[in-house]
Amino acid sequence: MWGYIGEEVRFSKQLQSQQSFFKQFYGSVTKSDYVTLRLGFIMTHCKTNPKFDFHKYMIRALEDDFKIVVGISWYLWLFVVIFLLLNINGWHTYFWIAFIPVIVTYGFDSCIMGQVRYIVPRLVIG
C-alpha cells in the first residue's frame, strides 16, 4: 500500500516541476500586469515622450544583457579555433593551455624575468 502512495507522490512532484517549467514560457505575466508595469515605467522615465515604444525598449535591453552574459570575444574565438586545430594526440594540449593565462597576463618577458621592472626588485631583495 505505501509503495503505491510513494509512486503517486513522485508522479505528482514530477508533474508540478514540468508545469512550472512550461509556465515560464506561457502566461507568466497577465496582460493587466504588463500594461500596468509598462505605463508606470513610461510615466516615470519618459514623461516627455508619450509615444515611447516599451516593447522595443525591452527587446533591446534584453539583447544587450544577452550579449554581455553569453557573448564571446574575438580573441576567445581565435583561441578556441587554434586549440581545436592543435588538439593532436600526444601534444598534451591541456597541459600547455594552463600556461596561456600567465603568458597573456604578464607577458613572455616577465616569464624569463627580462624586464627592468622585475630585475631591480630582485637585485634589491637579493
TrEMBL record:
Record's keyword annotation contains Transmembrane helix: yes
One GO BP annotation of this record: defense response
Membrane topology: Multi-pass membrane protein
Entry's localization field: Membrane
Entry annotated with the keyword RNA-binding: no
Keywords: Membrane, Pathogenesis-related protein, Plant defense, Transmembrane, Transmembrane helix
InterPro entries the UniProt entry points to: Mlo
Major localization class: membrane
Any Gene Ontology CC annotation: membrane
Signal peptide span: none
Membrane spanning stretches: 66-88, 94-112
Pfam families named in the record: Mlo
Similarity remark: Belongs to the MLO family.
Name of the molecule in the record: MLO-like protein
